[in-house]
């Protein structure tokens, strides 16, 4: 499903808008046009609706630009370290710069992570100093613009502070992990940072439902002090922290491992001319579910798995040959060289929605084995027990 659209390109980076951004935009418009000060124009009753919404439109654009500059700032530093930026997407919780092969060097990682909040602090400072400057020298300025300047300044400060929360996937979580990683293994640092993030999320979740203690004490009335929104954000942070942990565990477990160390090298080939019934018998005997299909001269022609067999009737199993049922080989998507990194095999499977790849010998291109998602996760599980 396409959930975002490209709206342009800046220094070669595609800028995308996520559909959830469409919900936040009217919210900003209404909050600014109707809400109370210091963030809104609601108290300026003498202003016409049209004027209030026009200024709110400018506010929304400036907010959008602030988010963009925050992400551009991450991207700029990452690009200086040679990382490719695939895209920048703006969605309901803010922005996300999609980077290819993020450096695993803690020194670089924390610089990339801190660049965004620093930009937001700088923007917040710029707007607030402008606001204070205008007040100090008594320049006469159109009142809605004064409120506009101060609220965009405040919004940027909120953005910077919120992003510095020490929880994944906020920038603060990445900074914390990078600082820890300078003193311990990357995996261990991730686990610590994830633990801090989860603790933080739980506390935030409880605060979201906490009743106002003074009101409870004086009148016995139960009223939520902050907002249940906090609990929603906390849940989001908790899930994201868990995801970051498992992604890093897989990455760390597979790092430095070659495809040939994880692949299955025996009983992986089936001739294309045999009947499906024979293949089924072979699968049962060899206890395998994935095979590389070869022709008479041993050239790789396709892949076949137990999944394809399941839909067939008994008659079909006896009449059809493997070549009729196999998935023809697309060398770019279905094969990997035995000397490549195992993590590369995982990326290829996830990217092309495949569960197995044919492993080929370097140079000759002949079949060397089969690698499956199951093999990879088994490898990860075994290593997890050792850390
Ligand atoms: Zn950021």
Q: Estimate what percentage of residues fall within beta strands.
A: 5-15%
Number of domains: 3
Tally of helical segments: 16
Strand order, sheet with most strands? 1-2-3-4
Distance between the termini: 38 Å
- SS elements, strand count: 11
| Biggest sheet record | 4 strands, mixed
Mean pLDDT: 84
SSE succession: EEHHEEHHHHHHHEHEEHHHEHEHEEH
- How large is the radius of gyration? 28 Å
Percent helix, as a range, is 55-70%
- Uncertain runs: none
Distinct small molecules bound, one entry per kind: zinc ion
Structural class: alpha/beta
Dominant shape: elongated
Walk me through the structure.
The protein folds into three domains: 1-164, no CATH class; 174-255; 259-384, CBS-domain. It is built from 16 helices and eleven strands. The chain has helices at 21-34, 49-80, 106-136, 143-163, 171-181, 186-208, 213-219, 228-254, 259-262, 276-286, 306-310, 314-319, 322-325, 331-334, 342-352, 373-384; strands at residues 4-10, 13-18, 84-91, 94-100, 269-271, 290-294, 300-305, 327-328, 335-337, 356-360, 367-372. The strands form three sheets. The protein has a four-stranded mixed beta sheet. Strand 9 (335-337), helix 15 (342-352) and strand 10 (356-360) form a beta-alpha-beta unit. It is elongated. Zinc ion binds next to helix 2.
């Amino acid at each position: 499903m396409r959930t975002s659209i490209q709206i342009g390109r800046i220094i070669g980076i595609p800028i995308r808008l996520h559909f959830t951004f469409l919900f936040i935009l009217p919210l900003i418009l209404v909050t600014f046009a109707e809400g109370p000060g210091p963030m809104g124009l609601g108290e300026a009753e003498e202003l016409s609706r049209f004027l209030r919404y026009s200024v709110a439109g400018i506010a929304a654009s400036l907010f959008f630009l602030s988010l963009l500059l925050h992400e551009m700032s991450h991207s700029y530093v990452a690009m200086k370290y040679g990382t490719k930026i695939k895209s920048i997407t703006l969605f309901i919780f803010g922005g996300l710069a999609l980077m290819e092969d993020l450096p695993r060097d803690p020194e670089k990682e924390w610089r990339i992570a801190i660049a965004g909040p620093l930009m937001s602090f700088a923007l917040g400072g710029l707007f607030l100093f402008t606001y204070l400057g205008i007040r100090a020298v008594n320049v006469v300025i159109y009142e809605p613009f004064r409120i506009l300047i101060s609220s965009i300044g405040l919004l940027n400060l909120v953005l910077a502070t919120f992003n510095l929360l020490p929880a994944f996937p906020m920038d603060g979580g990445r900074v914390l992990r990078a600082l820890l990683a300078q003193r311990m293994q990357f995996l261990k640092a991730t686990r610590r940072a994830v633990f801090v993030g989860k603790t933080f999320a739980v506390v935030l979740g409880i605060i979201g439902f906490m009743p106002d203690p003074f009101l409870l004490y004086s009148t016995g009335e139960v009223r939520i002090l902050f907002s249940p929104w906090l609990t929603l954000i906390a849940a989001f942070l908790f899930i994201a922290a868990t995801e970051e942990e498992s992604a890093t565990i897989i990455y760390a477990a597979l790092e430095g491992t070659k495809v040939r160390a994880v692949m299955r090298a025996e009983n992986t080939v089936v001739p294309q001319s045999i009947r499906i019934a024979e293949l089924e018998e072979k699968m049962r005997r060899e206890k395998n579910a994935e095979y590389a299909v070869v022709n008479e001269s041993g050239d790789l022609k396709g892949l076949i798995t137990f999944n394809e067999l399941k839909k067939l009737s008994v008659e079909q199993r006896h009449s059809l040959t493997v070549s009729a049922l196999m998935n023809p080989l697309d060398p770019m998507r279905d094969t990997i060289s035995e000397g490549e990194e195992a993590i590369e095999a995982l990326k290829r499977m996830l990217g092309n929605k495949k569960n197995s790849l044919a492993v080929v010998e370097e140079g000759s291109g002949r079949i060397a084995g089969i690698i499956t998602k199951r093999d990879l996760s088994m490898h990860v599980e075994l290593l997890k027990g050792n850390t």
